[in-house]
Design the sequence.
């Protein structure tokens, strides 16, 4: 009984999967070998993301502490490194509450639905050469489709909790998420057009010049949009300690709360991984065939640091400000970016319908100029809206003078 | 330019990232505490105490309870009264220090501690046995003789009852025994009766050990 993986299989590009499949297939039926190989790959990826999540919770608290001139967690282990363990043990020992009148099935389904998109996105991200679990030819579309499942989970949480604050938080969160989907999709269109491929490894290979330079507007829009979709500051209206306590997950406790929190932090990691892949040339770097994973991790750390930095710096925006930022600013600059990119590709691509490295550099210069122009125009427009303080009315001055004369 | 001030905000936080944290890691690190700090666990010298209960009378909250009985033994040596109960209900104490101000013979001092947290309110009463055994590192609050000796309860050694008062301990011994009222100094066995209770005689045994 020897099984060979067909070359047209989605998972053919994954060497680990092929190896496990061939090994198990020599002794077991093919369908069982397929499941076993899938479970092995899944185990590694899922636990890698969860371990990264644990490290991120520690790193974020530690960095936030240092940004605020504090020390951060330092009680458990060296530099407080065991803090995630302590948090986990604490949350596991808490009572697992379900509120009265809650829709039990939906309520209990939410943590799973929250965690799922986070882990599903990782499946297509190549964190070194040939290491994506499944190198889909429509990877970017898959990421967009899967990551918008979070909206559903948030609204389910708000609805099933039988709590008005949860419903408020969910409504706000869904409004933000839906309106930030649009500019994010439009920004990724530019990336896909320049790369000429929707597969993530195709995008990585197309980045002779990192798309950080070629598509600066798209990077900004995507970073802002994902931080809004992850409910991170400055766009975290879905949970507001001052108005609606914890927002949509107010009724969750114990292990369910832990899973929801872990999915938020894991979402930050996966979003950063997507940013690294699409804009920072992924695993590319010197000695990429051996040290690709190292380059990927370094870039991932950099992007995560930027996320924490932004969180440490900006206050939360109001809901209407968030909406205005998305619809008025992000949407317009992503449309401008889309138009500019398509025109540039139309002019620059040669007879073989592909962009050379020189073409990418020209595009980078032009797009950076366009980004600067966008910022200048937006600054002028936003300044025009600021009302000047009126000078004091002359009536008051004359009244004082009259009183003095009297 | 749109967003320029946002970048400036990012630079502000980045500057703070490079600074050292200003927090004090409390159980390991401590801020310096003033020697005049009015804290918990009063320092009480039984040898100096006459059982007059001035502290209990002056206490605005009435949380000091003193029960004495005539000792009947060794009255000339100063043991006129035996203290049976000296309870300070620290739970209601506001650390005004009026009891220390009221003490005529420098027997009661404020302490310097602040870490006497208890799980039960019943444990927040300092009984006489605890006062007897407590660490004799008095706060210098309302005790100029300790201040002049530059005594610091956080750095110095425990202070003996003979060194703690503003008068010499021999004067105090006679005072406690009531010999001043007898007006027969010649009969007394105490040798140096001419010694005057002055500020200059504070801490006659030399500077307090460990003083800084």
Sequence:
């Amino acid at each position: 009984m020897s099984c060979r993986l067909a070359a047209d299989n989605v998972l053919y590009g994954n060497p680990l999967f092929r190896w496990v499949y061939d090994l198990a297939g020599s002794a077991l039926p093919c369908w069982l070998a397929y499941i076993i190989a899938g479970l092995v790959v899944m185990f590694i990826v899922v636990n890698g993301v969860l371990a990264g999540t644990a490290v991120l919770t520690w790193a974020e608290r530690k960095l936030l502490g240092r940004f605020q001139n504090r020390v951060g967690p330092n009680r458990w282990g060296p530099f407080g490194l065991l803090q995630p363990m302590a948090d986990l043990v604490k949350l596991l020992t808490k009572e697992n509450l379900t509120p009265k009148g809650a829709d039990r099935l939906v309520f209990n389904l939410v943590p799973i639905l929250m965690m799922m998109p986070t882990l599903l996105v990782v499946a297509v991200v190549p964190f070194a050469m040939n290491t994506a679990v499944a190198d889909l030819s429509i990877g970017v579309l898959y990421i967009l489709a899967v990551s918008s499942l979070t909206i559903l989970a948030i609204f389910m949480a708000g609805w099933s909790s039988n709590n008005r604050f949860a419903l408020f938080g969910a409504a706000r969160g869904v409004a933000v998420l839906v309106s930030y989907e649009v500019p994010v999709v439009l920004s990724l269109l530019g990336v896909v057009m320049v790369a000429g491929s929707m597969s993530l490894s195709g995008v990585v290979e197309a980045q002779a010049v990192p798309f950080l330079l070629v598509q600066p507007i798209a990077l900004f829009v995507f970073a802002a949009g994902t931080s809004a979709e992850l409910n991170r500051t400055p766009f975290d209206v879905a949970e507001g300690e001052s108005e609606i306590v914890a927002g949509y997950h107010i009724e969750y406790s114990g292990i369910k709360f832990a899973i929801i929190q872990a999915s938020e932090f894991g979402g930050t990691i996966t979003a950063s991984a997507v940013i690294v892949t699409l804009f920072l040339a992924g695993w590319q770097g010197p000695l990429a065939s051996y040290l690709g994973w190292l380059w990927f991790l370094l870039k991932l750390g950099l992007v995560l640091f930027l996320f924490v930095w932004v969180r440490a710096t900006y206050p939360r925006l109001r809901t209407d400000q968030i909406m205005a930022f998305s619809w008025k600013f992000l949407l317009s600059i992503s449309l401008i970016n889309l138009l500019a990119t398509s025109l540039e590709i139309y002019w620059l691509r040669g007879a073989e319908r592909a962009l050379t490295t020189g073409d990418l550099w020209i595009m980078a210069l032009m797009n950076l100029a366009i980004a600067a122009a966008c910022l200048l125009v937006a600054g002028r427009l936003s300044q025009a809206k600021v009302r000047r303080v009126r000078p004091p009315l002359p009536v008051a001055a004359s009244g004082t003078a009259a009183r003095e004369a009297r | 330019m749109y967003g320029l001030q946002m970048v400036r905000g990012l630079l502000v936080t980045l500057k703070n990232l490079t600074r050292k944290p200003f927090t004090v890691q409390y159980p390991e690190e401590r801020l310096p505490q003033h020697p005049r700090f009015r804290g918990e666990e009063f320092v009480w010298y039984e040898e100096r105490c006459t059982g007059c209960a001035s502290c209990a009378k002056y206490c605005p909250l009435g949380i000091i309870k003193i029960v004495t009985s005539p000792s009947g033994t060794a009255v000339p040596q100063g043991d006129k009264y035996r203290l049976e109960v000296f309870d300070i209900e620290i739970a209601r104490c506001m650390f005004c220090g009026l009891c220390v101000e009221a003490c005529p013979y420098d027997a009661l001092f404020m302490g310097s501690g602040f870490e006497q947290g208890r799980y039960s309110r019943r444990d927040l009463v300092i009984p006489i046995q605890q006062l007897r055994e407590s660490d004799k590192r008095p706060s210098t609050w309302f005790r100029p003789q300790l201040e002049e000796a530059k005594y610091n309860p956080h750095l110095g050694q425990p202070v003996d009852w003979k060194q703690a008062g503003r008068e010499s301990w021999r004067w105090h011994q006679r005072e406690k025994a009531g010999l001043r009222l007898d007006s027969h100094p010649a009969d007394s066995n105490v040798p140096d009766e001419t010694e005057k209770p002055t500020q200059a005689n504070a801490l006659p045994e030399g500077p307090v050990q460990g003083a800084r």
Q: What stands out?
A: The longest helix of chain A spans residues 30-67. Chain A touches chain B through 23 residues (CB under 8 Å). Residues 1-93 of chain A form one domain.
